[in-house]
Amino acid sequence: TGKPKQVKLVLLGESAVGKSSLVLRFVNRDYVENREPTIGAAFLTQKCATDDRTIKFEIWDTAGQERFHSLAPMYYRNSQAAIVVYDITKASTLDKAKSWVKELQRQANTDIVIALVGNKLDLAKDVVEGQEEEEAAVGESTEENERQVPKEDAQAYADEAGLLFFETSAKSAYNVDTLFAAIAKKIPLE
Ligand code: GDP
Ligand code: MG
User: Fold this and answer.
1) Any idea which ligand is nearest the CA of 171?
2) Nearest Cα residue to 174 out of 148, 141, 143
3) Which element (helix H / strand E) includes 164?
4) ∠ Cα 178 82 186 (to 5°)
5) In angstroms, what is the span from residue 52 Cα to ligand 1's centroid?
6) pLDDT for position 132
7) What predicted TM-score, i.e. pTM, was given to this entire model?
8) Is 21 in the pocket of ligand 1 (CB under 6 A)?
9) I need a labelling partner for 108 at 20 to 30 A (CA). Which of 7, 25, 74, 146 fits?
10) Nearest CA, atom 9, ligand 1
11) How far apart are CA 99 and CA 113, in angstroms?
């Protein structure tokens, strides 16, 4: 009942990891290949219902380029949630994600909910116990396993740093709603 709780959320991570694609999948239920890079930052809103309340996410989708780094504090300073994205097919993007997490843990609200997200899961062809693990995530894609970041490594880091962790595909929509729902659940009630 009443107005939904407004939650400011910021997306951070190296450029081209799929930040804009994830937000647009969540907000517009849509995916567009090779979209224009974000300049500065984009603002979008989307509601998300959990068991006991409705949250309205106010989302700042930032540009990942180094030349925009100095603007980032403007976007995360008052955020209650952050999604830090890396690309599972590019190991260097996880290092960048870790440095964003460090910065958030030093400079952002102490109770900020942080989710680490490994995107582009559709490019992984993981074989687990003789089965394709990510059947639900597979779109049409190449035969090769393009994964560079093992899920276990990222999960172990996320556990140690106290972060939510998901692997997603903006392309196939895999885990995108789950990600935002998990964040919504973790936002403290006033
Ligand atoms: P951003 O710079 O982090 O906002 O990344 P974009 O959302 O602009 O995406 C960068 C590139 O990666 C684009 O060519 C997207 O089509 C592609 N991309 C984004 N998400 C996915 C995904 O889940 N799977 C695959 N295969 N490509 C993706
Ligand atoms: Mg973008």
Assistant:
1) 1
2) 141
3) strand 164-167
4) 55
5) 33
6) 54
7) 0.91
8) yes
9) 25
10) 18
11) 16
For residue 155, the model assigns a pLDDT of 98
Please give the distance, rounded to the nearest whole angstrom, from the Cα atom of residue 169 to the centre of ligand 1. Answer: 9
| pLDDT mean across residues, the chain | 90
Question: Which tokens belong to 34?
Answer: 């090779």
**CA distances (Å), origin 140, targets 48, 120, 135, 160:** 29, 12, 11, 34
Q: Which residues fall within 8 angstroms of residue 84, CB to CB, at 6 or more apart?
A: 11, 12, 13, 97, 100, 101, 104, 114, 115, 116, 117, 163
Ligand 1: which of 21, 166, 179 to mutate, judged by most atoms within 8 Å of the beta carbon?
21
Measured distance CA(152)–CA(128) in Å, rounded:
13
* Residue 30 beta carbon below 6 angstroms from any ligand 1 atom: no
* Residues contacting residue 28 through CB under 8 Å, at least 6 positions apart: none
**pLDDT score of 66 more than 80:** no
Tokens of 28: 């517009």
State the residue for tokens 């930040």: 19
Q: Which numbered atom of ligand 1 lies nearest the CA of 34? A: 14
Q: Cα–Cα distance between 96 and 118 in angstroms, integer?
A: 12
**How far, in Å, CA of 5 to CA of 87, rounded?**
31
